[in-house]
Amino acid sequence: MTEMVYGALPAQEGEPILPKWWRTLDKWTTTFIVSLFIVGLLLGLAASVPLAARNGLDNFHYVQRQAFFGCSALVAMMLTSMMSPTLVRRLAVIGFVFAFVAMALLPIFGTDFGKGAVRWYSLGFASLQPSEFLKPGFIVLAAWMIAASQQIYGPPGTLLSFGLCMAVVMLLVLQPDFGQACLILFGWGVMYFVAGAPMLLLVGMAGVVIFGGVVAYSNSEHFARRIDGFLSPDLDPTTQLGYATNAIREGGLFGVGVGEGQVKWSLPDAHTDFIIAVAAEEYGLVLVSIIIFLYAMIVVRSLFRLMRERDTFIRLAGAGLACTFGVQAMINMGVAVRLLPAKGMTLPFVSYGGSSLIAGGIAMGMLLAFTRSRPQGEIADALRGRGRG
Question: What pLDDT score does 388 carry?
Answer without folding.
Answer: 42
